[in-house]
UniProtKB/TrEMBL annotation:
This is HMA domain-containing protein. Keywords: Chaperone, Copper, Copper transport, Ion transport, Metal-binding, Transport. One of its GO terms (cellular component) is cytosol. Belongs to the ATX1 family. One of its GO terms (molecular function) is metal ion binding. It comes from Xylaria multiplex. Pfam families: HMA.
Length: 84
């Protein structure tokens, strides 16, 4: 577990359907050890195995159509811009 990464994202969510969509995609993503999506805090926190990188998690959340406002990897701020 020491090698796990913690990714945190600020995601604009307006309702339970929004947080539900993010819950669904994270639940299906290979390498996710645990996750917590909070509509109240407008954030998603993902604990991922070492093989699951930040960009993959970011891409997965963005696929829901929700706006990601910022992201962190293990407490460090990271870009939310994905390479084309």
């Amino acid at each position: 577990m020491a090698d796990a990464h913690t990714y945190k994202f600020r995601v604009a969510m307006s309702c339970g359907g929004c947080s539900g969509a993010i819950n669904r995609v994270l639940g299906k993503l290979e390498g996710v050890q645990s996750y917590d999506v909070s509509l109240e805090k407008q954030e998603a926190v993902v604990v991922a195995s070492p093989g699951l990188d930040y960009e993959t998690v970011l891409k997965t959340i963005k696929k829901t159509g929700k706006k990601v406002e910022w992201g962190q990897e293990d407490g460090e701020s990271k870009s939310i811009d994905l390479p084309e």
